[in-house]
Design a protein that fits this description.
Elements: H1 2-21, H2 25-39, H3 46-53, H4 59-76, H5 87-302, H6 305-337
């Protein structure tokens, strides 16, 4: 396949060179015929010549090809010129040599045809391989395009990752600065903490000493409290005994008081009864007093002033006696209530 491609490449390069050397069309076609037949061993045809040169019309390569074959046959004719040979013998010898040349040319042409068929088969196989190679090349190009797209995407992703990495680097630097600052703060706080620990240790020792003294005082207070509790227990027992005795005395007084109350209630009932009697008497006396007052008024209205003094003097002792009786009744009622 590489040999076929190299022959085609060399043929195209030689034709381009001949186009420069022979600007005339017929001379160019004649040189291309000689190039194909003598250098590459390919019999030229009108179509192939036209496809290779692409100049003039289709009749130009056909006429040039006819002239090429005629010139080639003329040059291939053998002439034997010797002064001692008769003309008939020289012609017969020339024809014999021409016949040998023709047969050799036919044999060479047959071999050339076989070689051409072999080359054509190889060319077809090469073309198939070229098609396969082109297909493989297409697939390779497709894969390459995919790889290129993936590479571009990867490059974009790499740029994005680089940008993120730069951001992360900046963030890392900021975090490192913050960590350093926090580390300095931690060191300072540890120093402060050491100072606080020392102060706390001293305060703790003082508190322990104070707690020891307080515990001693607490023990002493506890002893005193136990003694006081014992005394209080004795006092409570004594108080309970006194309370029991007082309860007994209170029960006695309560019984006496109940008896006294019952007697007083009986006296109160009698006094109420006497009060009712006295109130009835007092009402009768008040009625009598009112009647006496009315009588006195009537007497004052009917008698003369001189005569009024004598009855008045007589009525005064009776009024005084009624007043004394009422006062005595009230005093008796008051005594009965008490």
């Amino acid at each position: 396949m590489s040999d076929v491609l190299s022959d085609e490449t060399r043929l195209a390069a030689d034709i381009e060179r001949l186009k420069v050397e022979f600007p005339k069309t017929r001379e160019l076609y004649r040189e291309v015929c000689a190039l194909l037949f003598f250098r590459f061993g390919v019999p030229p045809t009108a179509n192939r010549l036209y496809n290779l040169v692409r100049r003039g019309t289709m009749s130009t390569p056909a006429s040039v090809l006819s002239e090429f074959w005629a010139e080639l046959r003329e040059k291939s004719r053998v002439r034997i010129e010797h002064p001692d040979l008769p003309k008939e013998l020289s012609e017969a010898a020339g024809e014999l040599i021409g016949t040998l040349w023709t047969r050799a040319a036919a044999s060479a042409h047959a071999e050339l045809t076989s070689l051409r068929d072999d080359v054509e088969a190889r060319r077809a196989e090469g073309e198939q391989k070229v098609v396969a190679a082109r297909g493989e090349l297409g697939r390779t190009e497709t894969a390459l395009e995919q790889r290129t797209a993936a590479l571009l995407a990867a490059q974009v992703e790499i740029r994005e990752l680089e940008r993120q990495q730069a951001q992360e680097a900046a963030a890392r630097k900021a975090l490192e600065a913050q960590v350093k600052r926090l580390g300095d703060e931690v060191v300072a706080r540890e120093r402060d903490l050491d100072k606080v620990r020392d102060t706390f240790s001293r305060d703790l020792e003082k508190l322990r000493e104070t707690a020891g003294r307080a515990e001693e005082r607490l023990r002493a207070s506890e002893k005193r409290a136990l003694l006081e509790i014992d005394r209080e227990r004795g006092a409570v027992v004594k108080a309970q005994k006194e309370l029991a005795e007082a309860a007994k005395r209170a029960e006695k007084r309560d019984a006496e008081h109940r008896r006294t109350v019952e007697a007083l209630q009986e006296q109160q009932g009698d006094a109420r009864q006497q009060t009712g009697v006295l109130q009835g008497k007092l009402a009768a006396l008040e009625e009598a007093y009112k009647s006496l007052q009315e009588q006195l008024k009537s007497l004052r209205a009917t008698t003369r002033p001189s005569a009024q003094r004598a009855p008045a003097a007589e009525s005064r002792p009776s009024a005084r006696r009624a007043t004394r009786k009422a006062t005595a009744g009230k005093a008796a009622g008051t005594k009965s209530q008490t």
